[in-house]
Write a structure and sequence with these properties.
The protein is α/β, with parallel strands linked by helices. The chain contains ten helices and 21 strands. The strands form five sheets. The protein has a nine-stranded mixed β-sheet with strand order 6-5-7-8-4-9-10-11-12. A four-stranded mixed β-sheet has the order 13-14-16-15. Strands 2-1-3 form a three-stranded antiparallel β-sheet. Helix 2 crosses helix 3. The radius of gyration is 26 Å and the shape is globular. Bound molecules: adenosine-5'-triphosphate and magnesium ion.
């Protein structure tokens, strides 16, 4: 068979127009930094694509069900996030900030899996010696674990054909010689990932790709390859924190809501089963500006403390500094408090954090954020044993949220004595009123009044 000729072309990722070379700005749509290099395969006239035979539609009932046999990684938290274990032939991306523990986790997975499977760890960033140091630290000494120190992706793929699991650490450090761009460029990262995807689907090998998330986000980061992956997992948390969260942001074989909690120790990264004390502080309740919300991620309910601080604005423009909470959501809730509960924040810089480095994306945290802000504003602490959940609308109404019962049951289990929740969720949870004091609220103003004005309800 004649060898396929490959050429490269430069395409705008926004509008799709082809340019003769790399340019900073697309001449067609005018966007900056969108031109990327792509591989184009030129077929000889004898190899031109032919129309495939007609694929007849098949009745759904005639298609046999395929059972997915998952392979357990042996790390419980990772298995949970993956949806029950590794699916053969799948492509999994582990992304995260530099130094957060991606290689540590992958080395541990490789060590455990190599007891029963053939595992190839392609380390493009570190030498054999460096990988060995890590393996020694983690106590891994398997004979079946092969380490390959290689940056050329085609060599890695050629070698990986006989393995069950391939780990590529990292996608930014490997390259395809067909492309002229340097490794780590958007074109290289995308083409390398596509090649690994084709390899995973055409073989029985499961491929793990490690990717760095750059501070700028999309540029050459794993964001450009999320759509071709089967599963995308991101490590969250500060590199200096001991606790890390592994969050599934996409999963073709399981829930994309799951979160795994890990602790970094000297001898490796370990799943944390009792995560209740991680996202709350012990001495809360003494200072104003803190309240706990029972937050749901996947199948879990985790109590997360919201802390807020107000400080007088020095320069005319008040600053809003949320950490772990969406910026726009914070601005929105401040506006609702100003307009509907008559608390002006325009002369304060506002700091909001979700404790323990967790990112709260659920709207159910709205009520806790608002109560914490109100507590700061009134300089009145909320009791340690009080928690709150509920979504807030622009009119100030408190809207019901999903899985209210689960949140209440978990709050009771963790020893909370009082829970503030949307009035429209009350029916579902009133059976627990002997075990916890339930305060149903309809409006932000009412919620603030109830908590800070000795139980007197607003009109
Ligand atoms: N001897 C040690 N004792 C305790 N922790 C260690 C030790 N050596 C490394 N670590 C921890 O491991 C982390 C680095 O892990 P790892 O190399 O897996 O991260 P990474 O995400 O792969 O980083 P990179 O982006 O550089 O590849 C460090 O942040 C550090 O906390
Ligand atoms: Mg690494």
């Amino acid at each position: 068979m004649a060898k396929q000729k490959t050429t490269t072309k430069y395409v705008c990722s926004e509008c799709g127009s082809v340019t003769p070379g790399w340019m900073g700005r697309c001449p067609t749509c005018g966007k900056f930094g969108t031109i990327i290099e792509e591989i184009e395969q030129t077929l000889s006239p004898s190899e031109k694509k032919v129309r495939q035979p007609y694929a007849k539609p098949v009745k759904l009932s005639d298609i046999g069900s395929e059972k997915i046999t998952r392979i357990k990684t042996g790390i419980g938290e990772l298995d949970t996030v993956l949806g029950g274990g590794i699916v053969p032939s799948s492509l999994v991306l582990i992304g995260g900030d530099p130094g957060i523990g991606k290689s540590t986790l992958m080395t541990q997975v490789a060590g455990i899996l190599s007891n029963k499977l053939k595992v190839l760890y392609a380390s493009a960033e570190e030498s054999h010696g460096q990988v060995k140091i890590r393996c020694d630290r983690l106590g891994i000494s398997s004979d079946n674990l092969m380490i390959m120190n290689e940056t050329c992706l085609n060599n890695i793929i050629d070698e990986a054909e006989n393995y069950d699991v391939l780990i590529v650490d990292s996608i930014q450090a490997v390259y395809l010689e067909e492309l002229s761009g340097s490794s780590g460029s958007v074109g290289q990262v995308r083409e390398c990932a596509s090649k690994l995807m084709r390899f995973a689907k055409s073989s029985k090998t499961t491929v793990f790709i490690v990717g760095h998330v750059t501070k700028e986000g999309a540029i050459a980061g794993p964001k450009v390859l999320e759509h071709i992956m089967d599963t995308v997992l991101y490590f969250e948390g500060q590199p200096e924190d001991n606790y890390k969260l592994l969050r599934a942001v996409k999963n073709r074989f399981g829930s994309a809501q799951e979160v795994g909690v890990f602790e970094m120790r000297e001898n490796g990264i370990f799943g944390v089963l009792d995560y209740n004390g991680i996202f709350v502080s012990e001495d809360r309740g003494t200072e104003a500006g803190s309240v706990v919300t029972p937050s749901i991620s996947g199948n879990r309910c985790m109590p997360v403390e919201i802390q807020t601080l107000l400080s007088k604005t020095v320069f005319g423009m008040p600053r809003r500094m949320p950490l772990g909470v969406d910026y726009n959501r914070t601005a929105f809730l401040l506006a609702v408090l100003e307009k509907r509960a008559y608390m002006p924040f325009y002369s304060f810089d506002v700091y909001v954090t979700a404790m323990g480095g967790i990112k709260l994306s659920e709207p159910s945290a709205d009520l806790a954020i608002v109560l914490s802000l109100a507590s700061s504003y009134k300089n009145s602490p909320i009791e340690k044993t009080t928690c709150a959940f509920g979504e807030i609308g622009l009119t100030g109404e408190i809207r019901p949220v999903m899985q209210a019962e689960k949140r209440v049951v978990e709050s009771i289990r963790l020893g909370f004595k009082k829970i503030v929740l949307p009035a429209r969720n009350y029916e579902q949870v009133k059976k627990y009123k002997d075990k916890i004091e339930i305060i149903p609220v309809k409006h932000v103003y009412q919620a603030v009044k109830t908590l800070f004005d000795d139980g007197k309800l607003a009109q």
